[in-house]
Amino acid sequence: MTSTICPKCGKGTTILLSGVCRECFFQNFVLAQLPQVIQARLCATCGARFARGRWTDEDDIETVVLKTIEDNLSIHEAAEDIEVCIAPRQLTPHMYKAEVEVVAAIQGERINAVLSTEIRIIRESCEMCSRMSGGYFEGILQIRATDRTPTDDELATCLRIVDMTIDRMRAKGDRLAFITETIRSKEGLDLYIGSVNSGRHICKAIIEEMGGTFTESPSLFGQKDGREVYRITFSMRLPRFTPGDIISIRNRKIVVKHMEKKLTGTDLADSSRFIATEDEIALAKHVGNIRDAVNAVLVSEEEHELMILDPFTFRTVNVKKPSGFAITEDEEIPVIRIEDALFLLPPEWKKNDN
Ligand SMILES: [Zn+2]
Ligand SMILES: [Zn+2]
């Protein structure tokens, strides 16, 4: 084994680390460093943490303290297999102290360092909370319905979709996904939205569940620092007809199944499928809803016809037997009266009837 002399202490050694013997190397080695006092910037309202120029949502203040320490801890670049153990404790609502132990391998040798620091909590208002309290908004979402007024149920569904979408956008990091104001009017609902992006996602989510269309248009809102400030108006139009509506078009009675760009439905007379564009149903009339269905007694069943006791007139009437017709056990079948004619509900709608 060749032995050399350590230039620092003069002792014989088999290996040199950074030009000195092992003992001399570890004498001045600093594994980890941490400032004695560090600041954690926290939003007093939502608990978000400010770091590297931006606000990020955090679960609680302990997490903010831990992340602040991690950000300020510097560990020697030669360290391998690093383990860090942080034990924070709260002294006052504005101050934490923490012991930090770092264990790591350096040149195959495990060494440790114990450090302590004081964390001062600086509470301020994040950009989202100050914008929210200041009534900030980038977009207005106007929820209306085509040729009618949205029902309370529909608006409640819209608000549920709005909440879910906002939560999803916030989880994705859109901190301006919030509603500043909600105004109920005779025509529908106006929502003032923090971010244009979340407004667009809300419109798409509403259409996916309820059908309808939306357009977006910028409008001049005012001036700020000599520049024109625009806001985006989202005009959301719920469909003219909703699922379960019965419409009359060219002497056909159709139960509406879905309406987006096209309307799909079922013909009440023969259960055939109906599909039409918005232009094609321009003259369609709303004549009822499957909610108005009632049960009627089935008197007899023939090969192609059914004889039913009309629950409105108490006379027996013959109706065409739908293909795949199966009698229910109690011998009652849901029927609906539209413009003095009696129709069986198409099979797919029966389960919705109660
Ligand atoms: Zn030495
Ligand atoms: Zn905040």
* Total helical elements: 6
Indicate the structural class: alpha+beta
> What is the 3D shape?
elongated
Q: Report the β-strand fraction as a percent range.
A: over 45%
Radius of gyration: 36 Å
Ligand names: zinc ion
Q: What number of domains?
A: 4
- Widest sheet: strand ordering: 6-5-4-10-9-8
Low-pLDDT segments, ≥5 res: none
Can you count the beta strands?
A: 25
The major β-sheet equals: 6 strands, mixed
- Could you tell me the mean pLDDT? 89
Terminal residue distance:
94 Å
Helical amount among residues, as a percent range? 10-25%
SSE layout:
Blueprint: E1 4-5, E2 12-13, H1 22-27, E3 32-33, E4 37-43, E5 49-51, E6 54-56, H2 61-72, E7 74-75, E8 80-92, E9 95-106, E10 109-124, H3 127-133, E11 139-145, H4 152-171, E12 179-184, E13 189-193, H5 196-210, E14 213-224, E15 227-238, E16 245-249, E17 252-259, E18 262-267, E19 273-277, E20 285-289, E21 294-301, E22 305-309, E23 316-320, E24 332-338, E25 341-344, H6 347-350
Helix pairs in contact: 4-5
Bound molecules: zinc ion (2 copies).
